Amino acid sequence: MSVLMQEMSEKALALGVPLSVQLDLTYRCNERCVHCYLDHDDHGEMTTAEIKYLLDEMAEAGVFILTISGGEIMLRRDFFEILEYARRLTFCIKLKTNAVLIREREAARIRDLGVESVQVSIYSHRPEVHDAITLVPGSLKRSLDAIRFLKSQGLKVIIANVLMTENMQDYQGVRALAEELGVNSTLDPTVTPMMDGNRSTVRLGVDESALKQVFRDQSLVGDVDEFCAVAASPSEDQMQALPCSAGHTAAYVSPYGDVYPCVQFPLPSGNVRKQRFIDIWKHSDQLREVRSIRLKDLPSCSQCAHGSTCTRCPGLAFMEGNMRGPSTQDCEKSFARTGIPSANLLSRKPAAANLVQIRALPTLAGATA
Amino acid sequence: MSKLYIARSPKLAARSLDGEMMIMSGADSTLYTLNKTATIIWQAADGKTSLQEIVEHRIVPEFEVEAGAALQDAEALARELAGHGILQVSEEPIPQPNSAAGEAR
Ligand code: SF4
Ligand code: SF4
């Protein structure tokens, strides 16, 4: 984040402005990614008029960065009508798409409408791996063709990859491909549970040894020693820190008008079909509760060695049953990164904690090798 | 001094945060922020109102400044913003396409 953007975020936080919103237009999709957390049936998406009304409300509320996502956004027949309307309201627009339906004409239209960036999901540089994840034969080729169309229009494209056992060997290939295409890339080691709480997708994520490998890859993390260092216990200031932007300067709206703090934090906080967006943002009990939480209020995490450096996602913690609790997926990442088990891993399994002590030497030796 | 007309460049993203405009240039994702005076000028930049009128009707009453000096400052600012590609400056009115992004709040 640029210094200026950081300044704007701080100002928005002080003023209580929702600077950034992700709006999912649909959960329908033309791919069937094995790790997807969505129910793809249409349970009553907002109409074009409802979305335009919401966009007016969001512009009025001060939303600047609007991420339009799904499902697959291009499956909405009114996609360009919505995009054009949103641009007329001068949102800074980021699109997330699998890009399968983007050809020259669509790429040119997206460029003409002044979209800031387009994020495209690519899981491997090899069709047999990518297409086995999307479950759509030929999808890698279609997505890569689309990236070329978007690039040739001068658009900023970002390749988003999710690390799973199935594509673990290919993340460097994806990065090389991104470089060849002249686009940026991101790698997310977290597979999100399904929105209804079903955790079957989480099992597709990589195991501890793969995480260790990734966290020690200099090309990804920069200074490995610094990245993997165990931080000092949280300071008084850090104890007052906010967990993340969710509910503070950012929010999420589903295709059905449900407002959540974040796409990965499915705490129902209101519905824009029943209430004004700004009223939900300002007065929802749920968002107020999210806003009240500081690191010091988290029973396990405030006592944890990783408290000041952990990437703990309150949304993942919520999906485990307690938004003030730890997020096991982040505990596992902290452990893979540093070799030190988290307060959560230790306290949840007293027997296992003893075993960790007995096996401490080999574990630590493995972690620092 | 000839009249100057100013218009917001198309394809920009913009939002006012507590009276100060955040502007993102789509071309290179650079973020700009404008102070309150610059924000008033930018919001009034409709291509058909001259800079002189904007200064006389919007800046002078609001900030109680001397019109001549304010206009000089406004011209310098307009040219600077034009240099960053976020404002168009012309000695003629600048026609605005209907669909252009421009309802910045
Ligand atoms: S940490 Fe989790 S809840 Fe917070 S912004 Fe990130 S994904 Fe959303
Ligand atoms: S490692 Fe686990 S217990 Fe420790 S701060 Fe992170 S989420 Fe909390």
Structure description:
The complex is a heterodimer of chains A (369) and B (105). Chain A is an alpha/beta fold and 369 residues long. Helix content of chain A is 42%, strand content 11%. Chain A contains 18 helices and 8 strands. In chain A, helix 2 (48-61) packs parallel to helix 3 and helix 8 (208-215) crosses helix 15 (328-338). Chain A is globular. The two termini of chain A are 33 Å apart. Chain B is an alpha+beta fold and 105 residues long. Chain B is built from 3 helices and 6 strands. In chain B, the strands form 2 sheets. Chain B has a 3-stranded antiparallel sheet. In chain B, helix 2 packs across helix 3. Chain B is globular and about 35 Å long. The N and C termini of chain B lie far apart (32 Å). The mean pLDDT of chain B is 88. The A-B interface holds A 2, 4-5, 7-8, 11-12, 15, 17, 19, 59-60, 62-64, 84, 87-93, 114-117, 154, 156 and B 10-18, 22, 24, 26-27, 29, 31-33, 99-105. Bound molecules: iron/sulfur cluster (2 copies). Residues 300-301, 304, 306-307, 310, 312, 326-327, 330-331, 334, 342-344 of chain A line the site of one iron/sulfur cluster.
